[in-house]
Each structure stands twice: as structure tokens, then as C-alpha cells.
């Protein structure tokens, strides 16, 4: 072979090892995601067996987030619900951040104001009535449907 000519042969390990490492890595990532999905499904099943009652949104505050939309818009705002519900004559309250967030304070405030006084179906733990949550499939009125992440289907509102 003349000098200066590059040999076309590659060591097989230079090809196989990176491919195997990629396959093993992807397998672990897939297994981790499957484990998280199974745990979420188990929580939703357990949660779906909790009793239901009507809750009313009393106040909606705004919290500033650290999330940046653009350099011009700055940080966003997250509506935070304060709600109440009654079980066996005992009034409980809860607090929940809504999954949606807004870049502008005015937009967030308008959305927040529109929720005050709305009622929604809430689930609570019969063994500990101060523990409550919201299951997306329960809400027929739609007052909170926009806040639910479809891939999760479950939004825990208060876990005291």
C-alpha cells in the first residue's frame, strides 16, 4: 500500500461498543419511564377509589415563577387555587397550583378571577378527609379541565 493512503478497515469494536452502549442506555431510560408510568397508574387507581364531594374555589392568588418565556416577557405567573369542601359537617380547605402558567400578569389575573366561585368535583381520602385531589375524568363542568396534564390525568390539589 502506498504511503499516505488511509486503510478502509475499521476495528469492529469501534463500531460495536458505541452501538451496544446506546442500546443499553436506551433500555434503562425506557425501563425508568415504564416504571414511572406504572407508579402513576397505580396512584390513579388508588385515588379513583376515594370518595367524592363538591369543592368551591374561594380565592385564586398569583405566584411568580422562575420560568422564562422570552427575554422580553420575563418570568411567568401561576394561578394558585384556594378551595374549600365539607365532609361530615367538617369544612376542609386546600391549595393547589394550576398547571398552566401565563406570561402576563393581567392575563393570569383575568383567568384567576374567572375561577372564583366555581365548583368542581373533588376526591378525598375517607380515612383522612384532609387529603384531597382532583381526577380529570370526574369534572363534567369543565371549570378545571384546562389545568390537567393529559398524560397524567391526575392533579393532586392538596396533600396535607
Q: What do these coordinates show?
A:
- The chain is α+β, with helices and mostly antiparallel strands.
- The protein is 30% helix and 37% strand.
- A hairpin with a 2-residue loop joins strand 2 and strand 3.
- The longest helix is centred in the first third of the chain and has 37 residues.
- The protein is elongated and about 85 Å long.
Helix content: 25-40%
Categorize the overall geometry.
elongated
The average pLDDT score comes to 75
Number of strands: 6
Question: What's the short story on this structure?
Answer:
This protein is α+β, with helices and mostly antiparallel strands. Helices cover 30% and strands 37% of the residues.
Keywords:
elongated; alpha+beta; single chain; six-stranded antiparallel sheet; 160 residues; disordered C terminus
Please describe the topology of this protein.
Layout: H1 12-48, E1 51-68, E2 75-87, E3 90-97, H2 105-115, E4 119-125, E5 128-135, E6 154-158
Amino acid at each position: 500500500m502506498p504511503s499516505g493512503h488511509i486503510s478502509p478497515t475499521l476495528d469492529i469494536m469501534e463500531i460495536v461498543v458505541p452501538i451496544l452502549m446506546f442500546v443499553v442506555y436506551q433500555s434503562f431510560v425506557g425501563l425508568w419511564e415504564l416504571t414511572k408510568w406504572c407508579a402513576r397508574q397505580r396512584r390513579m387507581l388508588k385515588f379513583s377509589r376515594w370518595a367524592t364531594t363538591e369543592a368551591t374555589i374561594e380565592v385564586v392568588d398569583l405566584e411568580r415563577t422562575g420560568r422564562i418565556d422570552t427575554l422580553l416577557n420575563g418570568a411567568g405567573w401561576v394561578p394558585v387555587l384556594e378551595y374549600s369542601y365539607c365532609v361530615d359537617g367538617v369544612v376542609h380547605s386546600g391549595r393547589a397550583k394550576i398547571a398552566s402558567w401565563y406570561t402576563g400578569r393581567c392575563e393570569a389575573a383575568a383567568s384567576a378571577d374567572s375561577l372564583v366561585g366555581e365548583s368542581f368535583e373533588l376526591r378525598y381520602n375517607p380515612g383522612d378527609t384532609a387529603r384531597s385531589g382532583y381526577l380529570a375524568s370526574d369534572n363534567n363542568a369543565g371549570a378545571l379541565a384546562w389545568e390537567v396534564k393529559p398524560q397524567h390525568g391526575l392533579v393532586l390539589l392538596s396533600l396535607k
